[in-house]
Design goal:
The chain has 196 residues and is an alpha/beta fold. The protein has a domain of 123 residues: 3-Layer(aba) Sandwich (Rossmann fold). It has nine helices and four strands, in the order H-H-H-H-E-H-E-H-E-H-E-H-H. It has a four-stranded parallel sheet, sandwiched between helices. Helix 5 links the parallel strand 1 and strand 2.
Length: 196
């Protein structure tokens, strides 16, 4: 199975099977929580296709899932944005916010590289973010601009489901697809001809 380069997308238009539907897949979807997650996501897509922003989709999804407490794990560089997001979500939910520098642990103590060697730098602490939100018993956690790798650790240690609201991309104003839509980046940075 390799979906790369597929032009006809017959799985989408005809139900063609390139990868078998296995008992393992069937079992995963028979789990009541997974079934509700899938049904809720699919209903949102069907009822609001191209009508809602990502923020609005997450709000409706959380309401449909009967979630009450939303966790926000944010990068310190997106603290203002996280504050605005929290202000929006708290209209419907209890919101718990935790910054990436929680616990203030020195990078040097952990043997981690620093941006500037001549000063104190607190390490990012995605495990601490997850554990703090676990203590708050959040129903859903939102990623707001955590670094690559930190986002993985955060999701790994969360008890609640995690969705990404903001992907960090400092160069592209937090829009990673900007590099994919840019012919300059495709040609000069990635040496890939423009295909979009």
């Amino acid at each position: 199975m390799n979906c790369r380069g597929c032009k006809d997308r017959k799985c989408y238009v005809e139900g063609k099977t390139c990868f078998p539907w296995t008992e393992e897949i069937e079992k995963a979807y028979s789990d009541p929580i997974n079934k509700k997650l899938l049904a809720t996501a699919t209903a949102l897509e069907a009822n609001f296709y191209m009508e809602l922003t990502r923020v609005e989709e997450v709000i409706r999804f959380a309401q449909e899932m009967d979630y009450h407490t939303i966790g926000i794990a944010h990068c310190i560089g997106l603290a203002r944005e996280a504050e605005v997001i929290a202000s929006i979500f708290e209209k419907w939910f209890t919101v718990k916010v935790v910054c990436c520098k929680v616990c203030g642990k020195n990078k040097k103590e952990m043997g981690l590289p620093q941006i500037k060697e001549d000063r104190f730098e607190a390490m990012c602490n995605p495990v601490g973010q997850a554990m703090n939100l676990n203590k708050e018993k959040t129903d859903l956690n939102l990623l707001v601009g955590l670094c690559v790798g930190h986002d993985i650790l955060f999701a790994k240690y969360c008890d609640a489901p995690v969705t990404t609201l903001v992907v960090k991309d400092r160069v592209m104003a937090h829009n990673p697809l900007g590099a994919i839509y840019s012919r300059y980046y495709l040609k000069n940075k990635f040496n890939v001809p423009g295909v979009i």
